[in-house]
Amino acid sequence: MTIHVDIVSAEQEVYSGLAEMLFAPAELGEVGIAPRHAPLITKLKPGEVRVKISDKESQEFYVSGGLLEVQPHVVTVLADTAIRAHDIDEAQALQAKARAEELLTDKSGKVDYARAQAQLAEAVMQLRTLERLRKRGS
Amino acid sequence: MAVGKEIRTKIASIKNTQKITRAMEMVAASKMRKTKDRMQATRPYSKKISQIINHLSHANPEYKHPYMIEREVKRVGIIVISSDRGLCGGLNANLFRTILNQMQQWNSRNIEIDICTVGGKAANFFSNINANVIGQVAKLGDTPHQIDVIGVIKIMLDAYESGSIDQLHVINNEFVNTMTQKPMMTQLLPVVAGDLEEDLSGHWDYLYEPGAKEVLDHLLQRYVESIVYQGLVENNACEQAARMVAMKSASDNAGNIIKELQLVYNKARQAAITQEISEIVAGAAAV
To answer: Which residue ranges does UniProt annotate as crossing the membrane (chain B) (predicted)?
Structure first.
């Protein structure tokens, strides 16, 4: 049994097709959506959305937050920015992480902590996605 | 030859105008391609989020978000999206005419109107007719960003939440094709239930994580933002298309005038030559 998955970001359609299952980083923890799931709307954290197309094939996308809507036969991911996981530039992710950490340690008081933490979480998730991809590749 | 000096200068000046309109036509054509791409790229998101909102309005939630509750309408808010620049045919004029008609209908029912304008032309127009403009943003250029319109949206959402307006509409030009653009008005708030593609009847509701209020706040705000932004990029594509068409017909008209003037000039020249010859012949015969 399959479920229709649509992933769109504000700038473009990222993925549209049938899948066996979808995994997404919901705000209260990772969720896996199988066909005939109950209707659900949840916010997403920065992280990896994985679309399991078949036993052998799956695709990953990076989202930096957004919304997930589930209907029994359709799942829609409204991503704030969904980049294909392969596209992430590792150097840039590291840089962003370094910048965010710098901001966190700099306790001069001028820094916007919530924002820095969000940046850090985002960078860490991008790196984790990349690591997982690399392990699978080698 | 002294014949038709005025005609020749006139032809030259029209040729210059034609050069300008032709250049503008070509610039608009290349910009249109880009703005059209942008419009199509953002369409899936706004389409999907509208679908979700539509599903939501057919659900039977325990928690009713204020944005989904119909109120008695005493005052409406409209966000008008126009172009920044002119020379694009009747694009803005048509849009404003539609709005004025709608405003008259509201006035006859004693409904007051608050307006937020996006784009310079709308700002000028509505301040000229002394409408109640409560927010405006202009000079967004050819690549507007969502962040540019968040200000006016915020003004309207706050007004809606505080109860000073009871409905929110957005009006922009819809891109039908290159030749046709038509004004389109969409009701944003309260959310209207549209037709469903699939059957979702029965008593059901979503599971909301973390909480219904939090999720719906987020979702509905995104919805309004994405529809307004979509309107903006669509209006941009309309502007370029309308300008391209307007400038093309201006170039064509200039061509016609040049042709007519050239004919008049040639006739005058021919008449002068004929007259001269007949004078010489008459002179020779007299000798």
So the answer is: none
Q: What percent of chain A has pLDDT over 90?
A: 25
Task: Look up residue B250 and give its DSSP letter.
Answer: H
Residue B202's pLDDT is: 66
Residue A46 pairs with which residues in a beta bridge? A64
Statement: the pTM of the whole predicted model exceeds 0.90: no
Q: Which of A5-9, A87-91, A115-119, B67-71 has the lowest mean pLDDT?
A: A87-91
Cβ–Cβ of A28/B41 closer than 8 Å?
Answer: no
Q: Which residue of A has its CA nearest to B204?
A: A39
Query: What tokens were used for A113?
Result: 């902590």
CB contact A39 to B (< 8 Å): yes
pLDDT in tens, B34-78: 999 989 988 999 999 998 888 888 887 778 888 888 889 999 999
Distance in angstroms (rounded) separating the CA atoms of residues B33 and B46: 20
* Residue A17 φ/ψ region, left for φ over 0, alpha for ψ in the -120 to 50 degree band, beta for the rest: left
The verdict on a CB contact (< 8 Å) between B204 and A39 is yes
What are the residues whose beta carbons fall under 8 Å from the beta carbon of A130, sequence distance 6 or more? Answer: A85, A88, A90, A93
Chain B contact present for A78, CB below 8 A:
yes
Q: Are B15 and B248 in contact (CB under 8 A)?
A: no
Quote the mean pLDDT of chain A: 81
Is some CB atom of chain B closer than 8 A to the CB atom of A119? Answer: no
A contact test, residue of B52, B58, B62 with most A CBs within 10 A? B52
pLDDT digits (tens, 9 = 90+) for B78-121: 999 999 998 999 999 999 999 999 999 999 999 999 999 999 89
Considering only CB atoms, B48 lies closest to which of A6, A42, A73, namely A6
A98-133 tens-digit pLDDT: 766 665 666 555 556 777 777 788 788 888 888 887
SS3 A14: strand
Which residues of chain B does A39 touch, with a Cβ-Cβ cutoff of 8 Å? 55, 59, 204-207
Torsion of CA B239, B240, B243, B245, to 10 degrees: -110
B56 interaction partners in chain A (CB closer than 8 Å)? 41
